[in-house]
Design goal:
Layout lengths: L1 H20 L4 E5 L6 E4 L3 E9 L5 E6 L4 E9 L11 E9 L3 E11 L9 E9 L1
Parallel strand pairs: 1-3, 2-8
Antiparallel strand pairs: 3-6, 4-7, 5-6, 7-8
Length: 129
């Protein structure tokens, strides 16, 4: 029993050390971070997570403002089968490779409609040091 606990502790410590050696930090941004400014070191991965409901036709049109786009993915909410009109979460990943100030911005609208002044918007400033 003692050997198992020591082995598990040792493995967990080794994994933590290896993860710390990569030098990559992650900065999460959420809906409540709208309008904020964040400072991150160069090399940081920025993950923006916002609610979205494409079943209604609405989705985010997101712009990384010069940050390197790594990818994006939509995760539908877990709902009972046959549920209509449920949403989920959309995540965008950016890499802060160069020092400077960048603005991530997005607008939540239907792609086929004209942009309107009352469309929901999201924006944050990222200062890469």
């Amino acid at each position: 029993m003692k050997i198992t606990v020591i082995m598990v502790t040792g493995i967990a410590l080794a994994l933590a050390l290896v993860a710390g050696c990569t030098g990559t930090s992650i900065q999460w941004l959420y809906e409540e971070d709208n309008g904020k400014t964040v400072e991150v070191p160069s090399g940081t991965e920025i993950i923006l997570s916002l609610p979205e409901n494409p079943t209604t036709g609405y989705s985010w049109e997101m712009n990384g403002g010069g940050l390197t786009a790594v990818g994006d993915e939509y995760y539908p909410d877990k709902v009972p089968e046959g549920t209509v009109g449920s949403g989920g979460t959309h995540e965008w990943k950016f890499k802060a490779e160069k020092t400077g100030t960048y603005t991530i911005s997005g607008i939540y609208k239907r792609a086929w409609e004209e942009t309107a002044t009352d469309d929901k918007r999201w924006q944050a400033t990222v200062e890469v040091k």
